[in-house]
């Protein structure tokens, strides 16, 4: 009667809690597995769409000499970390905050505030190295996958990444 129903509910609750704990405990492995299903080209396309929203063309600095100088400054970091410089697209933002950030697909954004206020090349390169690590480890992609959570898990199970790409593009 009532005891059996209560015991069954408790058992179902424990099974559900155990399953949720199992998903939580293995989420990094699941996220990494889903990330490996996404090609660099797909990641770049998603990153480009996000970049257009966060740093629209009107908020970018278009100074080929400055970009070339910063690219030259970054070359030792690319070489030391085995990064093909052509895989990184540097964007200069008009933002006056002393900051930089990385987007999916190899987009590296440096704010004007960082470029103007870095006291030494090493200070600038320290920030650049940090952002390059985000790119090489695919941190933005992995964070986005965690953000879509269960949808990514279903995608992994059924091996259909087209829907995941569409969801990531909307993030």
Strand content: 5-15%
Oligomer: single chain
- Quick one: how many beta strands? 3
Name the average pLDDT.
83
Sheet with most strands? 3 strands, mixed
Task: Please specify the SSE layout and strand pairing.
Layout lengths: L1 H24 L1 H11 L2 H15 L9 H17 L8 E5 L6 E4 L3 E5 H6 L3 H16 L2 H10 L1 H9 L3 H9 L1
Parallel strand pairs: 1-3
Antiparallel strand pairs: 2-3
Helix pairs in contact: 2-7, 2-8, 3-9
Describe the structure.
- With 171 residues, this protein is mostly helical.
- It contains nine helices and three strands.
- The protein has a three-stranded mixed β-sheet with strand order 1-3-2.
- Helix 3 runs parallel beside helix 9.
- The N and C termini lie far apart (49 Å).
Keywords for this entry:
3-stranded mixed β-sheet, mainly alpha, 171 residues, 9 helices, 3 strands, elongated, 8% strand
Give a short summary of the structure.
This protein is mostly helical and 171 residues long. The chain has nine helices and three strands.
């Amino acid at each position: 009667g009532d005891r059996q129903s209560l015991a069954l509910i408790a058992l179902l609750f424990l099974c559900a809690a155990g399953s949720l704990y199992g998903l939580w405990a293995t989420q990094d492995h699941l996220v990494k597995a889903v990330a490996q299903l996404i090609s660099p080209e797909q990641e770049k396309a998603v990153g480009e769409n996000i970049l257009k929203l966060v740093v629209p063309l009107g908020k970018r600095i278009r100074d080929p000499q400055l970009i070339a100088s910063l690219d030259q400054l970054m070359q030792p970091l690319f070489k030391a970390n085995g990064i093909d410089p052509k895989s990184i697209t540097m964007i200069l933002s008009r933002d006056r905050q002393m900051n930089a950030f990385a987007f999916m697909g190899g987009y590296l954004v440096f704010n004007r505030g960082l470029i103007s206020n870095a006291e030494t090349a090493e200070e600038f390169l320290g920030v650049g190295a940090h952002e390059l690590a985000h790119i090489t480890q695919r941190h933005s992609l992995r964070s986005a996958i965690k953000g879509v959570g269960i949808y990514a898990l279903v995608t992994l199970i059924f091996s259909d990444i087209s829907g995941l790409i569409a969801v990531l593009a909307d993030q």
